[in-house]
Amino acid sequence: MPIPNPIPELSKSEFPDDFMWGCSTSSFQIEGAASEAGRVPSIWDHFAEQAGRIRDGSDARVACDHYHRWQEDLDIAQKMGLNAYRFSISWPRVISDATGTINEEGLQFYSDLVDGMLARGLQPWATLYHWDLPQYLQEQGGWENRATVYAYLNFADVVSRRLGDRIKNWITHNEPWCTAMHGNWDGMHAPGNRDFKIALQVCHHVLLSHGLAVPLLRQNVSDAKVGIALSLHPLRPATTASKDVEATRRHDGLRNRWFLDPLHGRGYPQDIWDLTGAAAPQVQRGDLEAIAAPLDFLGVNYYFPEVIQDAPEKPPLATNVVHDPDCERTAFGWEVAPQGMASLLRRIQRDYQPVPMYLTENGCTYDDVVEADGSIHDAKRRDYFIRHLAVLREVIREGIDVRGYFAWSLIDNFEWAEGYLRRFGLVYIDFQTQQRTLKMSGHWYRDFLRG
């Protein structure tokens, strides 16, 4: 099917020869096998058991059955022409209890998985924490409890000692904003708290665990490259009124600067710290220096910009995210804005002069329709990827150091609080039969990568 204007023409040859081309996944969303081979419950297993938490009432006990079908999924990734594969390692599958008991069968699964990647020419990119905290730790306070920082370091130590001879690229955490804020402020995600003070303390402990893990991973892994993946958003005020402009600055302070500033040695932004009042996190001596451990790369997860409006009735930030009615949107309601990605990357480069960046997630959900012949003509998703990659091409030509792109996601999966209502995959999953079908977008990505 021809690509209509104004969809740009695009060629892989327009990107650097050593560019990383991958897809991203996460353990809880795809693996299933929730109670097999020594895996213990995570906070998301517990969350899904609570009525009303997951929109379609589902859970991830089977998900994509990747635990049993990983070879098929890696075959798909290889045939697609990827040279990198981003995955996460399930803490509850590797560490069985609060005393640190190692589940050898869980570790062996990831060892086999990594060997499978390497055998298919896929460079493994491992994320240590993608939100699936063991429930046994949540029952001791979870990330609000500083002891979880040291439990995480033990987990990172065990995994990197076992797999570090084959994995060189490590992401300590995926989207600390979601761990802290969605999990503990608005309650959308596990564990479902609604307490701003808890959320800020969780955020600090997650960032601290990242900072302390950086030298540990480098100690255990020869030539390790260590980074973190942040969910970042370009922002714009709803109007030119000074109140909305100021609200946008406040919102940026917690959405973006609260993470970028301490990671780059600036501590928490003072203007936002002043707004937190009694909710400010407890920070011990040396914490900020640890968080600022030098990175080897910065992972940027980009999906959409946010439009900000002043909202005095909503402390502490007194901001509100509003919709621009004129914008194209995905089925999730997220704005389709490739230029937003460009403005975000330019802003990071300008304000932080970071180490090399990677687009560690970028993707979209639409309501896929399976045709009578079994095909899925997801032209909107295909065009989404083309338009975003065309913008990325221009940003790289400007001299901004972006070295890789990971589409979210390889396969449809359990989309957290949305259950199975949202599909982000380049590959369609029939969750009744577990049959995998490459969508039009997946065919395009394959053809693009194979030239």
Structure description:
This protein is an alpha/beta fold and 451 residues long. The protein has a single domain, classed as Alpha-Beta Barrel (TIM Barrel), CATH 3.20.20.80. Helix content is 39%, strand content 15%. It is built from 15 helices and 13 strands. A hairpin with an 8-residue loop joins strand 8 and strand 9. 49% of the residues are buried. The N terminus is likely disordered.
CATH class: Alpha Beta
Q: Which second-level CATH architecture applies?
A: Alpha-Beta Barrel
Succession of helices and strands: EHHHEHHEHHEHHEEHHHEEEHEHEEEH
CATH homologous superfamily title: Glycosidases
Total count of strands: 13
Examine the coordinates and then state which fold CATH places here, giving the name of the CATH topology: TIM Barrel
Q: Name the structural class.
A: alpha/beta
GO molecular function: beta-glucosidase activity
GO biological process, one term: cellulose catabolic process
Family: Belongs to the glycosyl hydrolase 1 family.
Binding site for substrate: 29, 130, 174, 303, 408, 415-416
Any descriptors?
glycosidase, alpha/beta, TIM Barrel, 15 helices, 451 residues, 8-stranded parallel β-barrel, GH_1_N_CS, globular, 3-stranded mixed sheet, hydrolase, disordered N terminus
What topology does this entry show?
Layout: E1 20-24, H1 27-30, H2 43-48, H3 66-80, E2 84-88, H4 91-94, H5 104-119, E3 123-129, H6 135-138, H7 147-163, E4 169-174, H8 176-184, H9 196-220, E5 225-231, E6 235-237, H10 242-263, H11 270-276, H12 287-291, E7 297-301, E8 306-310, E9 319-322, H13 338-352, E10 357-361, H14 379-397, E11 402-408, E12 427-430, E13 435-438, H15 440-449
Helix pairs in contact: 3-5, 7-9, 8-9, 13-14, 14-15
